[in-house]
Write a structure and sequence with these properties.
There is one protein chain. The protein has 289 residues and is of the alpha+beta class. It is built from 6 helices and 16 strands. Strand 3 and strand 4 form a beta hairpin. Helix 2 crosses helix 3 and helix 5 packs across helix 6. The longest helix is centred in the last third of the chain and has 18 residues. Bound molecules: pyridoxal-5'-phosphate.
Length: 289
């Protein structure tokens, strides 16, 4: 099936398996690029503008211009639409990668990004989300935590360590033992019916799903505090959950081989999952953006 998928590369839709970028691309050479993983529900790309805003802000932080929202929106939409039939009309995961474009190989390191960025969009079938997840803590923190940079080595390394220990996700911890975020997710804990999540200032990605969960919690009247979480607090939580665009909300039932709460998805997580689905439906029917 994947042979039929198309990829957007700098304004053109090409057969994904044959599509290429330059050997001089700065994303490839030095990790100067940002990416977004987006989710489409049918052909509706959820929170597209929020993802593009984060990508553009990240590019600015890396010192290049990712381009305007409109052409990036068109690129993502065109790819989602072009691959819809090949994916059987199902929900898909899309990846937008925007790098700092190509480098003049004779320029003095690190060179100055000046040319157009490289814009690539791919999409593929969404993997089924597991009903719950386990994690291990990994004492690594991401460089430039607010940027979803293509240089994703901390996340890759942490996730690999988690898998080696039989867990689904890694919970990144700071040098002083704070719980930060998952390798590719944000984390929330539940105490006495209220939610707690680390603030962005702790050094975590401003997850698009995280912000939807903040809205949903408010709508449902679930109290939420954004504060630093010490590692030792983890096992006192009644529930824990991970949030990420493709997986939405996943109950986190054990960390470091110890159960969280009852070791099964809890009632607050269930309410949030239902509320999240409502939020998706609201956006698709045009009641919120
Ligand atoms: C490090 C990190 N934190 C959090 C997230 C969740 O972000 P979002 O909800 O925007 O998918 C991701 C997504 O991949 C991530 O890479």
């Amino acid at each position: 099936m994947s042979a039929a998928l198309l990829a957007w590369v700098d304004g053109q839709l090409l057969a994904a398996e044959q599509a290429t970028v330059s050997v001089y691309d700065r994303g490839f050479r030095s990790g100067e690029g940002v990416f977004e993983t987006l989710r489409s529900y049918g052909d509706h790309v959820f929170r597209l503008t929020a993802h593009l805003d984060r990508a553009r802000a990240g590019a600015t932080e890396l010192g290049f211009d990712a381009g305007e929202v409109e052409p990036l929106t068109a690129a993502v939409q065109a790819t989602a639409s072009a691959n819809l039939a090949a994916l059987g009309g199902a929900d898909s995961a899309l990846r937008l990668t925007v790098s700092a474009g190509t480098i003049d190989p004779h320029s003095l390191f690190p060179g100055t990004p000046g040319g157009p960025p490289t814009v690539v969009v791919t999409s593929h079938a969404l993997r089924p989300t597991p009903p719950s997840a386990t994690a291990v803590t990994v004492p690594l923190a991401r460089e430039l935590p607010h940027v979803k940079a293509v240089s994703y080595l901390v996340a890759v390394t942490a996730r690999r360590r988690a898998r080696e220990q039989g867990a689904d996700e890694a919970l990144l911890t700071s040098a002083d033992g704070q719980i930060l975020e998952g390798a590719s997710s944000n984390v929330f804990l539940v105490y006495d019916g209220g939610l707690v999540t680390p603030p962005l200032s702790a050094g975590v990605l401003a997850g698009v799903t995280r912000s939807v969960v903040v809205t949903v919690a408010e709508r449902l009247g679930i109290p939420l505090a954004q504060r630093v979480i010490a590692g030792a607090e983890l096992l006192d939580a009644d529930e824990a959950l991970l949030t990420a665009t493709t997986r939405e909300i996943v109950p986190l039932v054990a960390v470091d081989d110890r159960p969280i709460g009852s070791g099964a998805p809890g009632p607050v997580t269930r309410r949030l999952q239902a509320g999240y689905r409502d939020e998706v439906a609201r956006e698709i029917t045009g009641r919120s953006r």
